[in-house]
Structures are given as structure tokens and as C-alpha cells.
Amino acid sequence: MRWDHVIKNGTIATARETYRGNIYVKDEKIAAISTLELPGEANETTDANGKYVLPGFIDTHVHSRDGYDGAHYKEDFNHSTTAAACSGITTICEMPNSNPAISCVENFNKLIECVLPKANVDFGIWGMCLGDINISEFQALKDAGVVAFKIFWGYAVDAKNYQLIYNYKEGMGGVVPPLDQGQIYKIFREVAKTGRSVGIHAENLDIIKVLTEEAMASGDNSYEAMLRSRPAVSEITIIKTAISIAKEFGTHLHILHLAAGDGIEVIRQAQAEGVKVTAETCPQYLALTNKDAVKFGSIMKGFPPVRTQYDQDKLWAGLDSGVLNHVCSDHAPHSPEEKQTDLWSAPAGMTMIETLCYIMVNAVNEGKLSINKLVDVLSEKPAKLYGLHPMKGSLEIGTDADLVILDMGCEYTFRQENLHSRTKLSPFDGRKLKGKPIQTILRGRTIAKNGQLVAKATGKFVKPK
């Protein structure tokens, strides 16, 4: 037998077990896993002695700013997937507010055509919900292979290209106003028919509008003022409304980037009642609090905002209990010129794809989760949620040989200038971390090693089963 790749002597970790063994790859698939050495030669051999070998990580929430008319000065697919590969991520799910926006199958196909040559990792794509504008396209988008549908609840979009309007005001020309609850009701009904989930950005525009006007009128430009303008209740009220509508139709509801700790109990209760609701959070909410704004200011501005230690503690508890399904990045870069302004003017979003894995691996060393729980929330559960399991997120025989090798003893200081994204700004700049992905293997082939890309782009588009 001639193997394509043998990863030997590693400590293999899945969501349920940890053991020493060797992984054998043939024709891009895991062909064998053995505690004994199997006969045969190998085209590539990796000695993982003293290291952990895990299923490749999956980032389900990425804004690469790409497309034929994308905001490439902020980011592009080559840079975002390079950052992914260099940090142990082997599959991403691209959010639908690309340009063209994923409002129809034609745009879906255009985006694949545009980004495929730049893809350093495998990728899925979300579909966009625009109410009556594209509700008739949902079934066709599902058939084409979107992983899920997204509602930018509370956001207006440009009427021409459906890009988000970050500072919407009533009466603005050339925009599609935020969806009303009647339109959202119809969206949930139609998405339920597709069998896919609907993910929501949960913030209450009406509450935020009133409180933002009050905060700005006070002349207070601090992070605390911005936080008061988007309180936890602005998330909770939308989550409760969405749960009620999801229950009506049996729609699978997914809460995106949960920041409010009190949302955990609301979601837990709904799950206990049998409502199909899942949720995610992000490393910025698990490793930052409002106190970090003293140093980072608008660089750490995101919507929903990073909140308090109380919220962070609740989110960790929700992750531990399983109320939160997984962790993802909400990678949404903006240029330094855009971000390094005052808090009210700066757009929301951070460069996060590469730090997702660094922060979560460090959390294992801090005792906040086990190595098996890391696999659970960065590999297995996200793959299952979006219909990519077991081909992705597992170490089963016959599945894609997507692997990440971790050096859990590596200590370093994270520097934003070393990011592989086009925009090199991070609220984790200068943070001391321990544990790091040192090798990423996509379908059996090493694509990144010691934080550097070592292979040409071979990523593929993947669709749910």
C-alpha cells in the first residue's frame, strides 16, 4: 500500500475520546486509524509526537467582503482563507452579504465562480433573506446548496446591491428599510419548507434607535455610552420574538453571535419546550469585556457589542452546558481608516477569523474547556448543524482527511501585524497565549505549517447532505 499521507505518533482527540494513534490518508480520505504502524510507504509523513491531532476546525460565520464588486480593500477570499488555513480552519461558511449578495441562485453561482480560484480551504455559502424581494428564491437556493438562510434583523440594505446600511435613518433614499415582523413571519414560514435553518442577527432596532439618540445627544463618546445604546434587552426581545415565530412553523432558528448572557436562559427554556433553536457565540464575547475598550476603543466595536464580565461568564456556562451549539468568528474586517475613528462613526466588525482558534485553544490551557469540548464546538457540532457531517468535523473512515495539529505547550504573544487577513487590526493585540495550531491538513494535504501557507489554493465548494 502507498499512502498519500501518514500522521503518526499523535494524540488523537475527538469530541468523545482521546488516544494515541496514527492516521492514514488515501485519495483525500481517512483510510485507516490505528494504534499500530501499518505497512506501506507514504508520499508525506508527519510525526505528531507530543502533539494533538484533531478534526479540522470549521468557522461558520465569515464575511470575506468578496465578489465581483466586493469591498476588497477590507478583505478578500484569498486573505480570509489564508488566515483560516494558518490557524487550523479547514472549512468556512461565507455569509450572504457578499457582492453580489446571495439573494438568488444566479448570484450564488457568480460568487462561487469568483471565489473558488482564491479558496485555500473548503467553503459553504449562506443565503440571504430580503422578504418579498426574494422569498420566492428560497427553495431554489436550498436546492443549489446554501447551508442556511440569514436575516439581518434590524438592518436596512442598499436597494441596488443589498449591502448593509450601517447608519440607517428613516427617509434615506435608495435603501430597502429593515424588515417588519410581518415580512419576518413570512420568511420563517418559507424557510421551514426548505428544511434549512434561519439565522438571525438579534438586535431590536426600535430600542436601539431611541437609546442611540439619547446617548449621542448627551455628547458622551465613550464605549459605555455605546453599550447603553444597545443593551442586553435589545437582543433578548428579538430572540423571544424569533422563538415564538419559529415555534409556530417548526422552523429551525439559529441565534447568531450571542453576546447577552441572559439570552442563555431564554434559549435553554425554548430548547426544553422542544423548539428547534440553536445558538452560537464568538471569541470576542468569551475573551473580552467592556473594560478592554479602554485600550482598544472602536477596534473592538461590533454589533451586538462586547458586554460585561457577567455576560461573558454566562456565555461560558452556556457553552459548557450545551445550550450554545458552537463558537465561530463573525469575521467582519473594516479598514484601519474606517475603524480608527470615534465609536459612533466607526463601522461594526472585527478581524477575527485567525484569532478564533488561538483564543479557544488558549482557553483549553486555561481550563475553561477540555480538548474534547474544543473538538465539539469548533468541529463536530458546526458540521452537524449545517449538514456537513460526517464528511467534515469528524475522524471517521472514508471522510475528508481534514486535520489540525496542535502544540499545546507553545507560549507566545499575539501580534496583529502577523495576521494574514488584509486588515491587520485585532483587540487581542499583545495578549499572551498558550497553545497553537502548527499544521493544517486539507483532504490529506498539508496546506499550512507553523503559521504560514505552504500550498496553492485547492479549496472546494461544499454543500449540505
The CATH architecture category equals: Alpha-Beta Barrel
Low-pLDDT stretches are none
Q: Report the structural category.
A: alpha/beta
Task: Assess the beta-strand content as a share of residues.
Answer: 15-25%
Distance between the termini: 31 Å
CATH superfamily: Metal-dependent hydrolases
- Radius of gyration, rounded? 21 Å
The residue-averaged pLDDT reads 96
Globular, elongated, flat, extended or rod-shaped: what is the shape? globular
Number of strands: 21
Q: Care to describe what's here?
A:
With 465 residues, this protein is α/β, with parallel strands linked by helices. It has one domain: Metal-dependent hydrolases (TIM Barrel). The chain contains 14 helices and 21 strands. Strands 1, 2, 3, 4, 5, 18, 19, 20 and 21 form a 9-stranded mixed beta sheet that branches. The chain has a 6-stranded parallel beta sheet with strand order 9-10-14-15-16-17. Strand 7 (89-94), helix 2 and strand 8 (122-125) form a beta-alpha-beta unit. Helix 4 (181-194) crosses helix 7 (232-249), helix 5 runs antiparallel to helix 6 and helix 7 (232-249) runs parallel beside helix 8. The protein is globular. The model has no long low-confidence stretch (mean pLDDT 96).
